[in-house]
Amino acid sequence: MSLHDRPDPTVDIVMRTKDRPLFLARAIDDVLAQTHTGWMLVIVNDGGAPGPVDAIVADRAHALAGRVSVLHREVSGGMESAANAAIRSSGNTWIAVHDDDDTWDPRFLESTSSWLSDNNDASAVAVRTEIVWERVEGERIVETSREIFLPDLQQVTLAQLIRFNCCVPISLLYRRSALEGVGLFDESLEVVGDWECNVRLAVAGPIGFLRDEPLAQWRQRPGLAGVLGNSVITKRDEHYRADRLVRDRELRQVVERDGVGMPLYLTRFLDDRFDELHRRLDDVRDRLARQQAVEDRRPVNRLRRLARRTLRRGGRS
């Protein structure tokens, strides 16, 4: 019996949802389509109505075959709190966060669990990901287009993650011991908690990257607000503020430990380099402007301009 079809689960799948039954049904069916069948699905209903969630699970009881548990939370505690509650309620070797509006290629769990099995030093592994643009029409989800997310990405590094989150939750399979080792997700963050956790994971150990064909779909619905929207779109301002909050918090810890000297030096150094770059660009613009002025004064160019003006007037002098 292979790693992927044995009855004992190896993966805990965390699925956060709140009042989005249309998405939840698709997401559960997506999990059921995985070629790796050794998983346990933990659905966290984070403050939403319990009835629709229970009905969707009951409709799939035979296919789920006991591989599901549902945590109903009367009051929403936020995305990171919901994820942590699911992780603490389970205990398998690997953890995936499959939110209710995203999807996987059927081979996602098979490919990522195989890679983590062969790379014991890795904290997690990410996959090439597609952005899928879609809209909701009544009880239908209509896909409008697709594009590769970060098509030039060749590996996931700490340096990249410090700049921005280059691997979204649906693209990752975590090693439980690594995730628990860094303290799980930061529940004080309303947004960007996945990125902040990824940074800590990358400090603890490498994050692998399966860079060939896309195995995850990060689905987005521009123009939709409320429960049907994406937080990265509907909470853009909150993302901006939380990003700065995390960076300032980490900088403060560095300064408290090592002093303010290096940040002061680097800030001045970078400012000077940017000022120098701006001066050089200004010089280039000035030279181009002077060169254009010389060209404009040449007789042949003056005749060409005169001819163009005459043609625009219909040949009238």
Short description:
With 317 residues, the protein is α/β, with parallel strands linked by helices. Helices cover 47% and strands 20% of the residues.
What do you see in this structure?
The protein is of the alpha/beta class. The protein has two domains: 246 residues, Spore Coat Polysaccharide Biosynthesis Protein SpsA, Chain A; 52 residues. 47% of the residues lie in helices and 20% in strands. It is built from twelve helices and eleven strands. The strands form two sheets. A seven-stranded mixed β-sheet has the order 3-2-1-4-9-6-10, with helices on both faces. A four-stranded mixed β-sheet has the order 5-11-7-8. Strand 1, helix 1 and strand 2 form a beta-alpha-beta unit. Helix 1 runs parallel beside helix 2. The longest helix is centred in the C-terminal third of the chain and has 37 residues. The model has no long low-confidence stretch (mean pLDDT 91).
Rg estimate, integer Å: 26 Å
Kindly report the spatial arrangement of strands forming the biggest sheet: 3-2-1-4-9-6-10
CATH superfamily of the largest domain: Spore Coat Polysaccharide Biosynthesis Protein SpsA, Chain A
- Quote the CATH topology of the largest domain: Spore Coat Polysaccharide Biosynthesis Protein SpsA, Chain A
Low-pLDDT runs: none
**Amino-to-carboxy terminus distance:** 91 Å
Q: Overall mean pLDDT score?
A: 91
Largest sheet: 7 strands, mixed
